[in-house]
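Notes, p. 3: input format for complexes.
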Amino acid sequence: MTDIEIYEFDRQGYLILPDFLSRDEVASLGETVDRLEAHALENVDKPPRKWSAWDSDYHVNEELGYYVKGEKAEGKTLIIEDFWNADPAFDFLVDHERTMTYARSIVQGHVTINNSEIRIRYTGNQSGTHRPTGDKYTYRFNENGIDCRMIRFIYFVHDVTEEEGAFCVVPGTHKSNLQSPYGRDPDEEPGMVSLEAKAGDVIVFTENLRHGGVTNRSEQTRKTIHVGYGPYWLMSQNISTMDEPQNVLDRTLERYSAEQRALFTPWPDRTK
Ligand SMILES: O=C(O)CCC(=O)C(=O)O
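Output follows (272 residues plus 2-oxoglutaric acid):
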């Protein structure tokens, strides 16, 4: 990371990284997300089911190894978790050099992946504003620099304008001492900024920043790929498997290099 990027991430709590993925990578991810959406919509209401610790009802897809909840309708969203298992087209995002440069610059110690979701947001849908607090999400700065707990990368497979339901943040709130007095509607919140992005761009942010997604007022469905990273002791931060071990199948791990597997391997002999 450059000095300017470090300064801006510390100041604002996020960075927009233009042209992070190549045109071919974007095309391949976009097609794969479309295929997976169609598969998930066919299966989302079927058994087997899993109730998550966060009170959400998921379909467990045994064929492709993902968890999914939601529906395709006005105002609704479909969330497909653990997409790694579903298609090798996602493999290059694991131990992706540029991603790891950023992740290792803002998370200290052994870094692992703790979250993987494809968010499909239909017309009228909004992601409620939130700012998780507590040990898993803190933002700190010490003698070694930025010291984030959970961070997230959003990979854009098509352009997303404000009108199309942009990801949004209240810059700097990762340093706020108070809980926000505002509700969960990102369209109404003072200080909320929509972060428009182009296909191939990436946004990285600390989960400790107040964030959400403004209402998708367009006819275009918004599709983005979200991947969480953090210190090795953080268990899954997917809603379906919150604080459980990651749902990464043996057949997925077998495809990976040792470096890729290490990103799903906590180091249990170390303490936080
Ligand atoms: O992109 C969005 O609509 C919201 C995403 C979000 O809340 C997250 O990735 O934590």
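The first strand starts at residue 14 and ends at 17.
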